[in-house]
């Protein structure tokens, strides 16, 4: 069974009015994400990992120096699918309902969450990801380098932002802080966060 | 105590260097902007077209390299006794720095040193092959110049995420191809970088997008072998 690239949950041009261009998706989804899927299939072909779930491959290979290539590609396949789902045309701003209550109880306020998330995303030095996770029942903001993700730290991922330069270079060039602000102000898919929280 | 040539080239070694670093008076006063400054590009922003486009050069030099220097200066401001040293010396002695600034010097000081070398390593009408001692050493180490190029490109392609691919001089005086994560400098491991190519996506994304392989291949056309061959001979002489 080969690993497959999930379809984008929206049209590649759908975020164009919200600060993420179709051009970016052409490369980010069409080239980068696809290459991770293709590499993962190549690297796991005819091995017992080929029949595992993507999450299991990530957990099994994490920290194994001999399988670092498989881990990197598997985690990047998973991270990108999770990232596409973290985006919503016209999303962002403060959440409502249960998610708002959980954010307020964990961070004190939405503004405090926002400032912690911005800081994590801006200070991840080099390639990586910023996350909202559930850890021991509490919401928390984290960051991870390169392909690493919360699954290997026993946390439940709720939301992510890709801060590899390829995620924003065509639209924002070196201005990562503007890319982060745009994500928080008009892209965050709080419905996805609510769904992840409900399932946790 | 004036800087000797050996010291300014970042080749301080052993306890004499430690003593010198600890006992020297602060030389730079006041404004953080005076600690390190962005070195001017030795050519125009469009001089490396079409291999590296002008917009990339402008953003890369002015914004990325500029930001490393700003962050570095801000962190170093309260640490006056560490002002006025070549950045290479701070990297070489990173573990002697106050713990509070080690990470910033590693990341942003590394960014300053790596990019400073990178600009010098390129030139309009570059390309061709190394000369003199460097040509001999590359042939002896890798078999041939083209075999060296192949291995350097492969190492650069295989490196996952942000970083650099290097041709370094080891403490034993040998050449080796290595890669480092993010802005880590080979100087932190006692190696002398001779040549480095930037593997951060900002170095190539506007022209090459996801095709790092094509960037690595095209980059040889702008490599400044006369300057690098001189650099190698100088560094060898200092190690001898
Ligand atoms: Fe990405
Ligand atoms: Fe760079």
Automatic annotation (TrEMBL), chain A:
Keyword 4Fe-4S tagged: no
Origin: domain of life: Bacteria
What EC number(s) does the entry state?
Answer: 1.15.1.1
- Give every Manganese/iron superoxide dismutase C-terminal domain span: 95-196
Record family assignment: Belongs to the iron/manganese superoxide dismutase family.
Task: Please describe what this protein does.
Answer: Destroys radicals which are normally produced within the cells and which are toxic to biological systems.
Protein name per its UniProtKB record:
Superoxide dismutase
Q: Which organism is it from?
A: Thermosynechococcus sichuanensis E542
The taxonomy runs: Bacteria, Bacillati, Cyanobacteriota, Cyanophyceae, Acaryochloridales
